[in-house]
């Protein structure tokens, strides 16, 4: 069932103004629909801006950095908590928190993320490093050596004096990859699933004490 559009009545023009659901409206027109469900709301100018921003965040084509900046705007300009943002955009609170943490990276790393030289997964791993200088240096190594996220984790462990995991990489089936991606979207962090004939293991990766605390609160329902 099509999710209702959200409109508001403008007494000056006598017309209804669309404030959320532009993509759904376009899709309805392409599908040849002449009627769509609508919710009429009385909103203030601030609420109108908030709804428009949330609609923009829910676009599938937003980059991780664009999403983080939109979350920051909701938090700072509209004074929404991470929990309130998660409810409005349909993401977990942990996912919102972890996405916002990307903005703590130095500008040089954010530029590499925006240009697609590194992925969101790379960027999240870099957050574990203690200084902007270390994060930038590791980012340059990732780009120069075309590292994947697993290799980036090993690099960060090495830089922090930790012993990296020594398990070899395996070919991941499309089904397992889909499950990992669904869990990643739900939890807001990388998840690794090892599946065999007699069971397996599920590993949830985190890169800071803050992220671990957020994950525990979400998993325990606190």
UniProtKB/TrEMBL annotation:
Annotated Gene3D superfamilies: 1.10.10.2830, 3.90.1530.30
Gene Ontology cellular-component terms listed: chromosome
Gene Ontology process terms (BP): chromosome segregation
SMART domains assigned to the protein according to its UniProt record, in alphabetical order: ParB
GO MF terms held by the record: DNA binding
UniProt entry keywords in alphabetical sequence: Chromosome partition, DNA-binding
Boundaries of every ParB-like N-terminal domain copy: 1-57
Coiled-coil zones: none
InterPro entries linked: Chromosome_partition/occlusion, HTH_ParB/Spo0J, ParB/RepB/Spo0J, ParB/Sulfiredoxin_sf, ParB_dimer_C, ParB_N
Similarity remark: Belongs to the ParB family.
UniProt-recorded name of the protein: Putative chromosome-partitioning protein ParB
Source organism of this protein record: bioreactor metagenome
Lineage: unclassified sequences, metagenomes, ecological metagenomes
Gene designation: parB_13
């Amino acid at each position: 069932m099509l999710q209702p559009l959200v409109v508001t009545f403008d007494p000056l023009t006598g017309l209804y103004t669309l404030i959320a659901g532009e993509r759904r409206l376009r899709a309805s027109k392409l599908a040849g629909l002449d009627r769509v469900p609508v919710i009429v709301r009385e909103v203030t100018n601030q609420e109108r801006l908030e709804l428009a921003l949330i609609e923009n965040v829910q676009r599938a084509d937003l980059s991780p950095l664009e999403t983080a900046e939109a979350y920051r705007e909701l938090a700072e300009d509209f004074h929404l908590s991470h929990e309130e943002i998660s409810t409005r955009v349909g993401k977990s609170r942990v996912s919102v928190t972890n996405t916002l943490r990307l903005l703590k990276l130095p500008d040089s790393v954010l530029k590499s993320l925006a240009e697609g030289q590194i992925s969101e997964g790379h960027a999240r791993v870099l957050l574990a490093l203690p200084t902007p200088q270390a994060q930038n240096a590791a980012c340059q190594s990732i780009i120069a050596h075309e590292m994947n996220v697993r290799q980036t984790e090993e690099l960060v462990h090495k830089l922090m004096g930790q012993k990296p995991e020594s398990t070899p990489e395996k070919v991941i089936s499309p089904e397992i990859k889909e499950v990992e991606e669904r869990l990643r979207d739900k939890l807001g962090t990388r998840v690794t699933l090892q599946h065999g004939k007699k069971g397996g293991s599920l590993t949830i990766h985190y890169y800071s004490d803050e992220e671990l605390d957020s994950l525990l609160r979400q998993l325990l329902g606190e």
